[in-house]
């Protein structure tokens, strides 16, 4: 099976009621999310897993072993030994739940492609390929955590402080601390309910955005020293090399959030972080992170030109392109999207 939409339809219809029925009635589940998981992926995964366990379900969380250690700010949510990294012997007895995964290829594991499996696809990416047997894709939701929150409420599961905290991580990170345009009234209503059920806002903020390892601050300084602006400042780029990681003793996960600095420069439409990957077999690869300052540019479309994806305002890709080649592709993508606006202004 090679089709990215092996089971689902592209009709846009959602299967929420059918999914709730499976979550209530099925007994065994395997939950997973996309590679290089972010706060929404992990918060949704852990929140849903804990809720299903509260219903007495037999659940396992699957993630590739090379995803660990997770970014330091999320490690308290999921330890290495709390997830499995292999095909369980009873896979055929389990309902598979994908969370925050826009395309199957973002967790492309051979054993999950078995035709006999039921795949539940819960996501908020607007370009989701609807690859599940059952799909719940809400492109207007601020986060997958917001969708999971609604499912948990419908299932009648108590919002324990741990579940509330996990969902808050997904909500606050995918809304950019409630500043992205995907933030909506429902997002704040959800936040209020999570706070009422045990979330400590100050503790969450410090854990997610402060209490920084010194190496992360050093990486930020090195990235900012490389800032370049193109096309009158519409595109602002910074980059990190393998040597930057080696010389500062930093992990790759320490780059989380750095891309927000070029995005925040006045006049910027798209902020970019280009970083060389480290580790054996990845010497020729780099990761591109893209952030847009407003809805005018859909950076997920630019990321797809590199084989990646994401949201309108936050996306990324892994590429073999050099920094110079990547910059040209990004600039062209921004020009193409802004051309109608420029013609209208003229």
What's a quick, concise take on this entry?
The chain has 346 residues and is α/β, with parallel strands linked by helices. The chain contains eleven helices and eleven strands.
Q: Overview of this structure, please?
A:
- This protein has eleven helices and eleven strands.
- The model has no long low-confidence stretch (mean pLDDT 92).
- The longest helix has 23 residues, at 323-345.
- The strands form two sheets. Strands 6-7-8-9-11-10 form a six-stranded mixed β-sheet, with helices on both faces. Strands 2-1-3-4-5 form a five-stranded parallel β-sheet, with helices on one face.
- The protein is of the alpha/beta class and 346 residues long.
Biggest sheet architecture: 6 strands, mixed
| CATH architecture tag of the largest domain | Alpha-Beta Complex
Q: How far do the termini sit from each other?
A: 49 Å
- What share of the residues lie within helices? 25-40%
Supply Rg.
20 Å
Mean pLDDT, rounded to whole units? 92
Q: Please tally the β strands and state the result.
A: 11
- DSSP helical segment count: 11
CATH class of the largest domain: Alpha Beta
Q: Write down the secondary-structure element order.
A: HEHEEEEHHHHHEEHHEEHEEH
State the strand order across the main sheet. 6-7-8-9-11-10
Which stretches are low in confidence, meaning pLDDT under 50 for 5 or more residues running?
none
> Roughly what fraction of the amino acids lie in strands?
15-25%
**Net shape:** globular
Q: Domains counted in the coordinates: how many?
A: 2
**CATH homologous superfamily annotation of the largest domain:** inorganic pyrophosphatase (n-terminal core)
Indicate the multimeric state.
Answer: single chain
């Amino acid at each position: 099976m090679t089709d990215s939409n092996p089971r689902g339809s592209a009709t846009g219809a959602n299967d929420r009621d059918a999914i709730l029925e499976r979550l209530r009635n099925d007994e065994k589940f395997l939950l997973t999310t996309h590679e290089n998981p972010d706060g929404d992926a992990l918060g949704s995964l852990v929140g849903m897993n804990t809720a299903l366990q509260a219903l007495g379900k037999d659940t396992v969380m699957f993630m590739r072993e090379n995803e660990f250690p997770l970014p330091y700010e999320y490690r308290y949510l999921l330890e290495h030994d709390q997830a499995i990294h292999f095909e369980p012997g009873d896979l055929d007895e389990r309902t598979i739940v994908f969370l925050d995964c826009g395309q199957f290829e973002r967790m492309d594991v051979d054993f999950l492609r078995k035709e006999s499996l039921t795949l539940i696809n819960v996501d908020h990416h607007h370009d989701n390929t609807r690859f599940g047997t059952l799909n719940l894709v809400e492109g207007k939701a601020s986060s997958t955590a917001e969708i999971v929150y609604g499912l948990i409420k419908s299932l009648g599961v108590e919002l324990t402080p741990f579940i509330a905290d996990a969902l808050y991580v997904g909500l606050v990170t995918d809304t950019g601390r409630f500043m992205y345009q995907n933030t909506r009234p429902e997002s704040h209503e959800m936040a209020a309910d999570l706070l009422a059920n045990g979330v400590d806002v100050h503790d969450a903020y410090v854990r997610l955005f402060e209490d920084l390892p010194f190496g992360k601050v050093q990486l930020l300084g090195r990235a900012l020293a490389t800032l370049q602006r193109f096309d009158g400042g519409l595109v602002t780029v910074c980059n990190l090399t393998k040597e930057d990681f080696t010389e500062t003793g930093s992990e790759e996960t320490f780059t989380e959030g750095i891309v927000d600095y070029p995005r925040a420069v006045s006049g910027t439409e798209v902020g970019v972080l280009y970083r060389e990957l480290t580790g054996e077999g990845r010497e020729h690869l780099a990761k591109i992170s893209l952030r847009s300052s407003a809805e005018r540019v859909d950076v997920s479309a630019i990321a797809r030109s590199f084989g990646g994806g994401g949201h309108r305002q936050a996306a990324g890709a892994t590429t073999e392109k050099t920094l110079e080649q990547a910059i040209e592709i990004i600039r062209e993508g921004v020009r193409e999207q802004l051309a109608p606006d420029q013609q209208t202004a003229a």
